[in-house]
Predict the structure.
Amino acid sequence: MKTSYRVSADIGGTFTDIVYQDVATGRCGATKVLSTPDNPALAVLKGIDQVLSDNGELAFFVHGTTVGLNALLTRKGSKVALVTNENFRDIYTIQGNDRGEIFSIRWNKPEPLVALESTFTVGGRIAADGSELEPLRLSDLDQLVDACASEAYEAIAISLLFSFNNPAHEVAVRDYLAERLPDVQIVMSHKVSPEWREFERTSTTVTDAYLAPVVRRYISTLQAEMGDRLPEGGALHVMESNGGVMTATAASENPLQTLLSGPVGGAIGGKALSAATGRGNLICVDMGGTSFDASLVIDGLPSTSNEAMLEGLPIQMSVVDIHVIGAGGGSIAWKEAGALRVGPQSAGSKPGPVCYGLGGTEPVVSDANLVLGRLDGANFSGGEMTLDRDAAASALAALGSDFGMNAEEMAQGVIDIVNAKMADAIRTITIQRGIDPREFSLVAFGGAGPAQAAALAEELEISEVIIPVHPGAFSAWGMLQTDVRHDFKETLYSFWDMIEAQTIETAFSGLEERGRRFLSDEGITGDRVSFERAIDFRYYGQEYVLTIPLANGPIDMDRIRADFDAAYERQYGHNSPENRVEMANIRLAALGRLERPENAAPERETPRPAREREVWFAGQPRTTSIIDRNSIGDGDSVSGPAIIEEVTSTTLLPPGWTARLIEGGHMSLSKEDAA
């Protein structure tokens, strides 16, 4: 009899993390394999082969990918042409009137994904109320048809004025071009983002077109190479930027939603951890090989936004708020203008850190941790890899010679700098937003996160650190905790005191019907379907909005208004209940509950015997206990200095800190004088 598993894969710049869950028992396991940047699918397949035995089969598979994000960051997306209205050719090139760095004399506007030379116009106009002012002049598009032959455009973005109120012109343009350019992918703004603000909507549409061929090729390749490994009659699922999952078919049709699918799994894992441990406020930090991702869970829910800024360009879509910096275990230490820098450049998986012995010559954070004794060169990644400490020490000594430091002193300097960068990233999403990090627990994961967690907590005066189960693959674990989700929106502008509740109900009903169709296409119906409603509000005369969630049941106009006033005061420290309020957009999340077992407590494997070695703390070597996490039982406590090892990560417990297990098998670290 075959054993069925739910499997997730988080494809990172250095490692690909695999988590597998036995459908019958709910028990989870994890492993890591080196990523294969030239073909990410190869690492996924290798990881699946490692975790599935001969009698194992996939019941469900989901993965997070950075393919779209990397294409955007490296400007290696598709060649795109843009179609907009006559006399509005410069909408995308001029961009908005917001100056990104208001006091910088060197600031330049972000480089657009489509140049003015690749922007084409068409005669015809839709008015703000959706009526037709001028008929469409489709013959204007022949210039674009001719240009496609010479310029080899792979995708076309169509963004016409007020198409969110009346998409007829965009549909006609699409039909005209599709007939003449059958091999070119065409994206329409009213499908991608039916929301006002012309530049933002155009930017969103262009980004979707820029990524569409790249993401579709990747998904098609992964599906083909997985072949019969995919669930029988099932589908490959992909994480969305909003924290849900969708099928590969839906991802191919909505490639923009995959943009942040890689890092978002950790935030969703944080939500599940919050529910399991009763800790409502969490700072979730994921330190992998390439990047450091920070996000918040507030009152048990991930912090979200309806707009993202990537490479300085706005994107209108629901996203889990994640702050990303270039700081990871593979971040390269280098000298610039007489000062030591760490990152954002990363050694990745090829050539990797010096200690991997794969050709890397520049020391990285992992080399520093190895030299300081914080990593076991003979037991790295569960014994799958052997690390070369001597090579790492030589590289750090060579860099340290410029600063009059030996290898250990240089290693400590590298760690101190990367810790300072990560602490500043956490301050960006907390203190700069009026949030006190001392009121939160710090959840540290990723392959490198648990080694730095205690130092980060001390820097920010946070009293508790939580190291979750399978910390090195926690983002992949989080992907198994989520459900199918699709977001819908519609601009519905009015003064709140001039619109009827029935008008709003009717608009939401239309979005719900669309949501049911989308979920039905993915095999989810009946009581597994639910909806979450929200409305964007602002005080009259203001520019930007706050999104207010609506309670289930009939719309209560007075309660919703009071909720907006209260939310405004929480956000800005004051409100104006006497002012008129405008509503801008309605939003709906269509949720499809996936069948999954309860998470069982981790199965303890036979622990490795405890041992000791010298580990450097505060510039001095100290004899330190090396403990297998499997040896820590319920009710046990471990006092630092200690190093707690497991397959996917290594936790550093400094002097004065204590570790103990809590609900769900997660591990809590606290400073003894604050316990």
Notes: The first strand starts at residue 3 and ends at 11. The chain has a mean pLDDT of 89. The longest helix spans residues 198-226. The CA atoms of residues 373 and 615 lie 5 Å apart.
